[in-house]
Amino acid sequence: MNEFYKKNIISVRNLDKQKLELIFDATDKIIDMSQDKRREIARGKTLGYLFFEPSTRTRLSFESAIALLGGTSLGIADATSSSIHKGETLGDTVKVISSYCDVLVLRHSLDGSSRFAAEISNKPVINAGSGTEEHPTQTIQDLYTIKKEKKKIDGLKIGIAGDLKYGRTVYSLLYGLRNYDVDLHLISPESLRIRSDSTYDIKKELSYTESSNIDEYIEDLDVLYVTRIQKERFPDEEEYAKVKGSYVIGSDMVKKMKDDAIILHPLPRIDEISADVDNTKQAKYFEQAEYGKYTRAALLGLILNENGF
Ligand code: CP
């Protein structure tokens, strides 16, 4: 039996290197497969989704992934158009939707929401973003992108810049990078450094520097991972105003980077990467978004098939 069969995907903390590499290999396999063969992987299966927060890429790449595998999808993309608006609880909603599908994808503003849903659901639950906590499928796609574009992860000099306090993709990525031997630099305004409640776990297996000055590292990085300042998570508008626009990666900055460096971003971006960077060879964030469809398809294929595919 493959080890992902009917398993929840809640945290990258549960994904060791062997499991991550298994998903990457399955992704390569999906990409290389004929369309006819792909359509057999989830034929007759249904993906359910519940998105309590806005999403473009995650929800649509999951829908696209299940369609690629010959399955179907149903769900709630806007809680105001569902019975949640009448006061139905998350627990009841999860219980009902999980009875309509084979795997359930959840995005919610509360930390712990996916873990809670997994306890109630009688189908596997995939965390598509839980509060400021984690976004595990984003990390699978981020690490896969690095591996595809740089041909390796070990030995790379990686900078993660932006909102490291509230960005849930950052926490999942840090948990994922614990599996690799990387030279890591965290770059953020002082007030947006990673939260101390998470550093204990991360520091056990990962060393990194913290700085506010991106210029210290820009010339030497192999990977620059840029994140959006998460306006919606700030308890105070004034605090957001103080850090808004702290880092703007423009083509002038890209010129200082190594020729073969790559720039990633989980997207959406607001103003932290200028549009003129999009045409540089270092910009890989749209490829990263596309890989998300295939990494999610691979994960779904493994969760839905006892013997893999
Ligand atoms: N990266 C990401 O989670 O994008 P969406 O919010 O559009 O799903």
Automatic annotation (TrEMBL):
Domain Aspartate/ornithine carbamoyltransferase Asp/Orn-binding: 154-301
Keyword presence, Transferase: yes
Domain of life of the source: Archaea
Gene3D superfamilies: Aspartate/ornithine carbamoyltransferase (3.40.50.1370)
Example GO biological process: 'de novo' UMP biosynthetic process
UniProt xrefs under InterPro entries: Asp/Orn_carbamoyltranf_P-bd, Asp/Orn_carbamoylTrfase, Asp/Orn_carbamoylTrfase_sf, Asp_carbamoyltransf, Asp_carbamoyltransf_Asp/Orn-bd
Residues in Aspartate/ornithine carbamoyltransferase carbamoyl-P binding domain copies: 7-147
Catalytic activity reported: carbamoyl phosphate + L-aspartate = N-carbamoyl-L-aspartate + phosphate + H(+)
Entry binding sites for carbamoyl phosphate: R57, T58, R107, H135, Q138, L267, P268
EC number(s) on file: 2.1.3.2
SUPFAM superfamilies in UniProt: Aspartate/ornithine carbamoyltransferase (SSF53671)
Binding, L-aspartate: K86, R168, R228
Metabolic or biological pathway, per its Swiss-Prot or TrEMBL entry: Pyrimidine metabolism; UMP biosynthesis via de novo pathway; (S)-dihydroorotate from bicarbonate: step 2/3
Top-rank EC class of the record's enzyme: transferase
Entry keyword annotation includes Transferase: yes
Molecular function (Gene Ontology), one example: amino acid binding
UniProt keyword terms in alphabetical order: Pyrimidine biosynthesis, Transferase
The family this protein is said to belong to: Belongs to the aspartate/ornithine carbamoyltransferase superfamily. ATCase family.
Subunit record text: Heterooligomer of catalytic and regulatory chains.
NCBIfam families listed in its UniProt record: asp_carb_tr (TIGR00670), PRK00856.1 (NF002032)
Function per UniProt: Catalyzes the condensation of carbamoyl phosphate and aspartate to form carbamoyl aspartate and inorganic phosphate, the committed step in the de novo pyrimidine nucleotide biosynthesis pathway.
Protein name: Aspartate carbamoyltransferase
Gene source species: Marine Group I thaumarchaeote
Name of the coding gene: pyrB
